[in-house]
Write a structure and sequence with these properties.
Number of domains: 2
Strand order of the largest sheet: 1-2
Largest sheet: 2 strands, parallel
Helix content: 40-55%
Strand content: under 5%
Radius of gyration: 18 Å
Shape: globular
Number of strands: 2
Distance between the termini: 35 Å
Order of helices and strands: HEHEHHHHH
Number of helices: 7
Length: 139
């Protein structure tokens, strides 16, 4: 999903999750992944509740202010959030790709005025990365 350059990513969590299709070995793609890994920006009660109701494991660390607020409430604050650290480490692959996309200055600073031209730049940069990776894998 493409949003305005100054818009935060976290409000787009549920719309993006609604568009996900996980291919399986056979049949139509599933619309519910086994787990979702995200950074602390996505750690909200609404996001966690949505994932829990759909049976999706949330691999999202808790924000420090949320932890402090929960501890301040004592027993009424609820249980600590579980976060699978080994699964969370795999999120690094996506972060590295985003950093490689942003190596291209036009993407990092979002010079393009229209969403269409920005998306075209993203697709061009992703294609360049993919072609470079193909060339390295054949050597």
């Amino acid at each position: 999903m493409l949003t305005a350059g100054q818009a935060a990513d976290s409000p787009q969590f549920l719309p993006v999750l609604g568009e996900i299709h996980v291919p399986g070995p056979a049949g139509r793609p599933r619309t519910r992944p086994d787990a979702v890994a995200a950074d602390k920006a996505y750690s909200s009660r609404a996001n966690r509740t949505h994932l829990r109701t759909r049976g999706i494991v949330a691999v999202i660390p808790e924000k420090t202010d949320q932890t402090a607020n929960r501890k301040k409430k004592g027993r009424a604050g609820g249980r600590p959030v579980r976060c699978d650290t080994e699964l969370y480490k795999e999120r690094n692959t996506v972060e590295r790709l985003i950093n490689r996309l942003k190596d291209w200055r036009g993407i990092a600073t979002r010079y393009d005025k229209t969403p269409g031209s920005y998306l075209a730049g993203l697709q061009l940069r992703a294609s360049m990365i993919w072609i470079r990776e193909l060339g390295q894998s054949t050597q």
